[in-house]
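User: My collaborator sent over this chain with a note saying "see what the structure looks like." That's all I know about it. Can you take a look?
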Amino acid sequence: MRTQREHRERGDATVEAVLAVPVLLFLIMTVFQFGLWYHASHVARAAAQEGVRAARVEGGDADAGQVRAQRFMHDAAPTLVHGVEVTSSRDANTARVEVHGVVRSLIPGFDLEVDANAQSPVERFRSDTP
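Assistant: Without extra context I'll predict from the sequence alone. Here is the result:
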């Protein structure tokens, strides 16, 4: 025989689950989204470093650095980062590569950007003779 109290509480667990599950799923998706952003920022940093290595060598140029960084991003994260923009510059002393892109979003309307840059002195041959 049911008491009056048991009859009133029927369905409470279902209502609590309906309210709690979407919040829990959103929190889990947020954790995954930031994990993707963290990984993408490391890939972008590695691409910038790879590009600056190509641009800084003797006989290298800014275009070589840009191509190497774009190729690295394409190979390492073809679907993770979209809208990738790579800029590269080199003068007599310094080579610099910058990578920018937007991480794919698990949460609609929640776009996170990644920016990375690397800079290095240009390699030059110096003779030992005075």
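A starting point for your reply to your collaborator: The helical segments are 4-8, 12-56, 62-76.
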